[in-house]
Amino acid sequence: MKMICINCPKGCEMDVVRNADGSVTVSGNSCPRGEAYGKSELINPTRMVTGLVRVAGMRKPLPVKTRTPVPKAKIDDVLFALHQTTVQLPVKIGDVIVADVAATGVDVVATANM
Ligand code: SF4
Questions:
Q1: pTM for the complete prediction?
Q2: pLDDT confidence of residue 48
Q3: Are residues 12 and 27 in the same domain?
Q4: What pLDDT score does 2 carry?
Q5: pLDDT for residue 101
Q6: Whether residues 34 and 72 fall in one domain
Q7: N- to C-terminal Cα distance for the chain?
Q8: Residues in the chain where the model's pLDDT stays below 70
Q9: Residue 20 backbone dihedrals phi, psi, to 5 degrees
Q10: Residue nearest to atom 1 of ligand 1 (CA)
Q11: What does the alpha-carbon distance between residue 101 and residue 111 come to, in Å, rounded to a whole number?
């Protein structure tokens, strides 16, 4: 699989191959971060998710994000959980808004004080 490392502006073009024994070989990277990224993208790609949740009694929503990246396959489930959530004020940056969102083991936290 061809991919471009997004960890720095150099943007190394890499070949990431799963070998017959299940191991993964990365070439074209200029540093170890590229190798780690290539392996992660092939085996278990993850992304940070940001979004907005409703605030009880207010029109303005609360911005939130996952505390750490979640598996790409779970992103729709995370967004659905955010859609189902209404928070009560007050909220501080870093407060857990949805614990273990979509059974990912990752919490969704507030990114603003309200
Ligand atoms: S492999 Fe290293 S040098 Fe190349 S884009 Fe990724 S982080 Fe940058």
A1: 0.80
A2: 96
A3: yes
A4: 97
A5: 98
A6: no
A7: 44
A8: none
A9: -60, -30
A10: 34
A11: 16
Rounded to the nearest angstrom, the distance between the alpha carbon of 3 and the centre of ligand 1 is 12
Domain encompassing residue 9: 2-43
Instruction: Report pLDDT for 61.
Output: 98
Strand partners, 47: 70
Distance 109 CA to ligand 1 centre (A): 29
- Structural tokens at position 68: 């750490």
Q: Per this entry, what is the length of the chain? A: 114
**Structure-block tokens of residue 42:** 């092939």
Residue 33: predicted pLDDT:
97
Give the CA distances from residue 114 to residues 49, 58, 82, in Å, rounded to whole numbers and listed in that order.
Answer: 20, 11, 17
Helices then strands, counting H and E runs in the chain, come out as 2, 10
Measured in Å, residue 9 CA sits from the centre of ligand 1 at: 8
Residues in contact with ligand 1 by the CB-under-6-Å rule are 5, 7-8, 10-12, 29-31, 33-34
* Residue having the nearest C-alpha atom to atom 2 of ligand 1: 31
Task: Tell whether 59 and 83 lie within a shared domain.
Answer: yes
Q: In angstroms, what is the span from residue 37 Cα to ligand 1's centroid?
A: 9
